[in-house]
Write a structure and sequence with these properties.
Length: about 290
Amino acid sequence: MEYVARQLDVALDGLTTYGERAQTRTEHLRKIQLYLGFRPAGRKELQMLARWLLERALEHDKLTLLLQLACDHLYVQKIVRPGITVIERLVVTVRGRAQQVIFRRLRQMLTAERQAFLDELLVRDRSLGCTPLTWLRRSATSNSPAAIRNALTKLAFLRQQGIDDWETSQINPNRLKSLAQIGKRSTNQALQRSPTIRRYPILIAFCQQIYEEITDEVIDLYNRCLAQTYARARRDLEEFRLAAATAMNAKLRLFRELGSVVLDVEVADELVRECIYQRVSPQQLRGHL
């Protein structure tokens, strides 16, 4: 206060009595708004904010982010921000409206058959030992042929429902990605308790996202499996070449022993076999045939 008093060149005790008159704060606030070019947030301004925020809510679902965007927009438009509770209620309302818009845009593709499929994703399957949603969320832990077959089975399961042909282009890609992440993190019970207006868009986005991820996973598993097979084959080839070279050297040594006996003029013809057997046993000869 002393610092401010020096700047204003007024006595310090003058600041201690500031605001005792109720109209002072109101008048000064009005003058400050006029000087900065701000205007109060009336009904028209809040309606404009709601329309603007709805477009953002169709892209993002996080409440804190929407609240921050609303406050930033008011500041840019030079509108005095109302009480925080007013903004919070507006954000919650707009968020619910965005969910309704998304559901309406997806309503055409939500046939009875697809709704039944989406509901079955949350029901435990005895053959899988879990719900299909949990099964689809599990990533491969190795690049074995069994893992590739399991991933291909998932793709076939999704293709039976025509996932790759589902039309969701009318939904913002960021919102689809956000909904898919909710589907990955949420439990089966939480999704079952969610209203259909929220549950079905989440499951649709999840199916499309997981279909792309599993497709990439299959390609990655195949490439890694192929590289591993190639490396193993190369090691086997090197071992085979080494074994062949070793066998060839052994045969050459044997040929040298036999040749030295046959070419020795001091060894009589009838003693050639006997001399050979002295150096190389019959069993060794049979082993090289």
